[in-house]
Every structure is written in C-alpha cells, then in structure tokens.
Design brief:
The chain has 115 residues and is an alpha+beta fold. It contains three helices and three strands, in the order H-E-E-E-H-H. It folds into two domains: 38 residues; 70 residues, no CATH class. A hairpin with a 2-residue loop joins strand 2 and strand 3. The N and C termini lie far apart (84 Å).
Length: 115
C-alpha cells in the first residue's frame, strides 16, 4: 500500500514539473511575439531656416513634426541641435512609458533648454 502511495506522489511530481516546463515555454514564445510587434521609435533633428526642430518617427513614418519649442508662447525654434534632440528624446521616453508625448515648460527647464 505504501509503495502505491509513493508511485502516485512520484507521478504527480513529474506531472507538476511538466506543467511548469510547458508554462515557461509558452510564456517565452508569447514574449517573443510581443517583441516582434514592437514598432521602432526614433528621433531625427531637422534644420529649419530659423534654427532646429525634430521629427519623431514611428516605424519610419513621421509621428511628430516639431519645428518650434513646445510649451512656450510663440514660434521660437530650438537654438541648438542638442536642445532639439534632448526634447525629442524626452517625448520618446514618455511614449515608451505609455504617456502622452507632450512637453511642459517644467520639462524644458529640467532639460536646460534655452528659451
């Protein structure tokens, strides 16, 4: 009788191990599918007649075209390419975190963008 109990426990343990192994395999495949569907997001500086701006591309298509510093009154371009790219990178970071890519005046101050 005790031998039968040990056999059931052994079979049950093997069954649990197989279920766990299958779960890990399925989880890994679904994770790979998510990575395959992710879109490429990138920023590109644009030189305008008055200064600098940026484009944010999603899957190689323009998603945001920004010729002027956002969140300030008027149409003032970025003074440097670096300022434009820092702002674009922040917008991309917000997008990747599931937030709207809007830039606030506080963001510009934190980035030390010349206003």
């Amino acid at each position: 009788m005790q031998m039968i109990k040990k056999s059931y426990i052994f079979v049950f343990a093997i069954f649990i191990i197989l279920v766990i192994a299958y779960s890990f395999r399925t989880f890994k495949k679904s994770d790979e599918k998510v990575n395959d569907r992710m879109l490429k997001v990138e920023s590109v500086a644009i030189h305008t007649s008055a200064g600098w701006g940026y484009n944010i591309l999603v899957d190689h298509k323009i998603f945001i075209h920004q010729e002027f510093i956002p969140a300030i009154t008027g149409t003032k371009p970025f003074l440097t390419k670096e300022d434009a790219m820092k702002t674009a990178d922040l917008a991309i970071e917000k997008l990747k975190n599931g937030k709207l890519p809007s830039i606030t005046k506080a963001d510009l101050i934190a980035l030390k963008i010349s206003l």
